[in-house]
Structure formats: C-alpha cells, structure tokens
Amino acid sequence: MDKFLAAISAVAIILIAAGAGMLIMFGDDVKTTPVATPTPKPSGNPWDSIPVYTISGAEDIAKKFVTDDETFKFDGMIDTLNVNGVQATVPCGYDVIVEFNCSYGGYGDRTGNTVTDAITPHKAVISILRNNVTAAVLDETYDMVTEKYLKA
Fold first, then answer.
1. What distances in angstroms separate CA 55 from CA 7, 37, 126, 128, 148, one per listed residue?
2. Order of strands across the sheet that contains 93-102
C-alpha cells in the first residue's frame, strides 16, 4: 500500500510541476484578438473588453451595407431607407430587414442598360454574425454579396 501511495504522490507532483512549467513558459504569450470591433462601453469594468453585438449595431451595419451596394448606389432613394425588422438568429447573429425604393427597376449597377422608369420598392434581408455581413438577399431574387441573380 505504501508503494501505491508513493506512486500516486509522485504522479501528482509531476503533473503539478508540468502545469506550473506550462504557465511559466506560455502564461504571458497567450493573447486573444476579438473577431469584430466591440461596441464601446463605459470603462472601469473588467467585462468591458468583451465584444458586444447589439440590435442597434446590427441595424447600422445593415443600413451601411445596403447604401454601399450597387443597386442602392445606382438610384436608391435615401429618404425611403428604413429598417423594418430585426430577428435574432443565433448568439451574436441577426437578420435585419431593410426596405428602400429605387427610381428605376432592376438590380446592381445598371449603367448602359435599359431600365424601367418606375419607382421600385425593394426589401433586403441582411444576415449579420459577430458584426460581419454573412449573406444579403434583395427581394428574394438578387444576392447582394456576389451581385448576381439567385438561381431559380
């Protein structure tokens, strides 16, 4: 029995020493980088360095994405741009519905193409995960990320 306790004690000492050695070797070198820019929060709290993903942040990202898109840049009407809904999809993820009108029909940059002269309403669903746009579909017809029509 004494040999058994001595063996267990020896193994425990080796494991503790190995763990302490790993901490000494790597303790200061381990750093993490957030995936997305965190929303600023008041300082003084140790939790302030954790990224925050909010509904209002997702709305802002979605509106910026839409206004930077070729369809909106071509003839989007800024005064009609509205967020019409936000749905939490997964932790840190949202689907944002953005609606707006364009002066002409069609999608993307239509320079040089024949366009219909009619105010055209659009509905975009922008999927956001950790403050990054992961998908964007306009009128269930057009992929705003690839700037191509969806396959039927």
1. 57, 15, 13, 10, 28
2. 76-88, 93-102, 120-129, 132-138, 142-143, 148-149
CB 137 within 8 A of CB 69: no
CB 55 within 8 A of CB 94: yes
Whether residue 70 lies inside any domain: the answer is yes
Q: What's the predicted TM-score (pTM) here?
A: 0.67
Task: Using DSSP, state whether 96 is helix, strand or coil.
Answer: strand
Asked if residue 46 is part of any domain, the answer here is no
Structural domain boundaries, residue 135:
55-149
Tens digits of residue pLDDT in 36-72? 555 555 566 666 666 778 999 999 999 999 999 999 9
Measure the CA–CA gap between 64 and 66, rounded to whole angstroms. 5
Q: How many domains does the chain have?
A: 1
Give phi and psi for 137, each to the nearest 5: -125, 130
Query: pLDDT digit string (tens) for 64-109?
Result: 999 999 999 999 999 999 999 999 999 999 999 999 999 999 999 9
On whether residue 25 sits in a domain, the answer given is: no
